[in-house]
Design goal:
Radius of gyration: 17 Å
Strand content: 5-15%
Oligomer: single chain
Largest sheet: 7 strands, mixed
Order of helices and strands: EHEHHHEEHHEHEHEHHHHH
Shape: globular
Number of helices: 13
Helix content: 40-55%
């Protein structure tokens, strides 16, 4: 049986390309032939919208998973991209931290559902920009954590808090959890700051940082307004090429190439 891969895509800082990375990595994996489920754990529901699901199409949501009203297979909806499904989110999820805070085993609500994923499926979790109960649920369910990090002056600020949360979850609830890697996003090599930030991050974090850097690209920014990943919206753009290259590196870290053989 293939090893299960559940990857939480997390950063408590907003606007770092987390949802963009979740959507486009999911699309790239699916286009490469990997059955992929994207779990939209952000109450804003941007990943759901970015994959073409309108609010009235979201019959079952992540909230239903957390409350046990629906199972993963029931809630995962097909997208226009073959092999890619999404468990959507709505604004109902915004109250989950409070409503579920007294639920027994509240940190494992998502884990119980996601480990029912069909064999060989890659599960990506788009976490909210916070380190609350939802993100902790994602980390307890996950086998690894991917951290998108914007190439800006304060890139490393707050990262230690996130890594501290990973360490705490590992010690208390999920000893198998590990860091998948750090992905630098929104880099603009036309200014020296992006280059300096990248050098600092690589010096500090070493091999944890992915070789590929996602550039700041207008096509990446435009794609969500067309309810598409950039890989579908403009397959030949710099952003699309970067996300495909990153997906290859991601597969290498998960040893998916050998599993596919």
């Amino acid at each position: 049986m293939r090893e299960q891969h559940i990857v939480a895509i997390a950063n408590q800082k907003g606007g770092v390309g987390k949802t963009t990375t979740a959507v486009n990595l999911g699309a790239a994996l699916a286009q490469a032939g990997w059955p992929t489920i994207l779990v939209d754990l952000d109450p804003q529901g941007n990943a759901s919208t970015g994959l073409g699901l309108t609010t009235d199409q979201r019959e079952f949501t992540v909230y239903d998973l957390l409350t046990g009203e629906a199972g993963l297979v029931q809630a995962a909806m097909a997208t226009d991209i073959p092999n890619l499904k999404v468990v959507p989110a709505t604004s109902d999820l915004a109250s989950a931290d409070v409503e579920l805070s007294q639920t027994p085993d509240r940190m494992r609500l998502l884990s119980k559902q996601l480990h029912q994923a069909p064999a060989g499926t890659i599960v990506l979790i788009d976490c909210p920009p916070a380190l609350g109960l939802l993100t902790v649920n994602a980390m307890v369910a996950a086998t690894s954590v991917l951290v998108p990090l914007q190439a800006e002056f304060y890139a490393l600020e707050g990262l230690s808090q996130l890594l501290g949360t990973v360490k705490h979850v590992r010690q208390t609830a999920n000893p198998a959890l590990r860091i998948n890697g750090i992905l630098l996003t929104m880099s603009d090599y036309r200014n020296n700051l992006s280059q300096q930030v990248e050098a600092d991050v690589r010096e500090t974090l070493g091999d944890l940082v992915y070789p590929t850097v996602i550039p700041r690209n207008v096509r990446v920014s435009e794609a969500p307004s067309h309810a598409q990943p950039v890989l579908s919206y403009d397959p030949n753009s710099k952003g699309s090429l970067a996300y495909r290259q990153f997906a290859e590196e991601f597969c290498g870290r998960l040893k998916l190439v050998t599993e596919a053989a």
